[in-house]
Amino acid sequence: MPARPKPLFYETAKCVALYMDPNVRLQLYFRCPQFRTVHRSQTLRIKDLKVRPENFEIDGTIYKLGVITQYTNKPNRSLVTLSNSGGGLQWDLDVYGLPIETRNETRNMPDDNEQVAILQRQIKILEEKLRNKELQPDDIKRIKIKIEVARWEIERLQTRISKSPPPYRNYLQMTVRTGEDIQLERVVYEKQLKLTREYIEKRIFSNGNIQARNLQIGGDRYTNDLVDLIENGSVQPDVEPLFRYAPQGDKVKPLLSIREGCLEVGELKVTGNVTNAVISLQKVLSTAVPLKQLRTVNQQFPDDPIIKTSQLVLIVGCWPFTVLSSCPNNRTHFEGTYVFNNQFTNVVKKWMESNIIVGTYYSIGFHEVCFVEELFAKFRKLPGAQSGENKETRLTRFPESIIIPMINDTELNIYFNGPNKEEREYCRTRFIVKMKWQPRGYARAV
After folding, report:
1. CA-CA distances (angstroms) from residue 159 to 67, 163, 217, 260, 422?
2. Separation of CA 384 from chain center
3. For the segment 38-74, what is each residue's pLDDT rounded down to a tens digit?
4. Domain of residue 32, residue span
5. Residue 382 CA: distances (Å) to CA of 81, 344, 406, 438
6. Distance CA 233, CA 167 (A)
7. Residue-wise pLDDT tens digits, 167-189
8. 439 with 329, same domain?
């Protein structure tokens, strides 16, 4: 069978595509049929890929799919206009604009008439609050918005109760935003939001290999109270399993519908549950290239190769010293810590009883040298501890290395200095305390 003819520019286009802005390249792929073969054959290189609950972002361009509402017989309510301008709602609606999930999944929900009565009572209470002359302007604005939200829901409920045709229609809207530039595409809302989102993901991400220098999974802010939220059983009914606080197991689907083994990532930032993030990556991440860095909050870490093989695990925030008793990786850095005597003793005792291998390296950032000295004073008081130096500290401003004997002919070396150029990429404090397991005799007591 003769080979399929190729465009004259094919080889040149392949080279150009490799270095092209990924968003421009995607537009060419969608609009130029002759470019599709080129696009599929070359790795899509992305500097910053951010996957949030409500959207995903490729090198500064945000893609968001949502459900919007448009009145057919009058201008939109201000609340509807505001929701539409934000890209629409992130859950499915019925023809009346009411969430489908609340009817299908929550058996204890009141019926529509009861809900209308509840909302009317809420409006009366809010209107009473507005009569308070001591309210601040922001409080007044907040209450008025709550009243409008309640009235909008009453209108939709009453339309459903009367089974009248609603004076509005719902649409699926795709918003593509780059800075101030916004592109909108709307289609009739006929398929579930989830199915449409998966279709769009497959069109963008399932055509070949993808390299992401930086990958973020989760919102832009870290969930520092994640452990408390899990323990308190916080519920997120309208949130995709990937972004929920607690581990979701098999409910988590492969990230962005990327093909198996076709994703390479340099640095991974997880602002929420790392177990869910790892599950989403297990099939799509290439095993040939380990992560350079995993950055996340302290939590219960799964025993997973993606975490274990990462060159560095960075725990953001300031945590009690006890978190060092179960580090997720042999190279773990903590942005900050605080120490209590009993915590310190228990952690070091666990280290002494554990078979920690040579090369294990934990580090902690400190802003002030006085706090480093407090930590070192605790290490010096440990049984068998000696003050010494090693080849890494000998010619530095702070040459002391505390030596603590460990099992299996190993020793723990503790020392500190200012972060070097490489360390400043992940350590933004003035000082970095280093705790390294070395063969017995690596450091010399003085």
Report:
1. 19, 6, 39, 47, 63
2. 43
3. 888 899 999 999 999 999 999 999 999 999 999 998 9
4. 1-42
5. 65, 10, 12, 18
6. 39
7. 999 999 999 999 999 999 998 89
8. yes
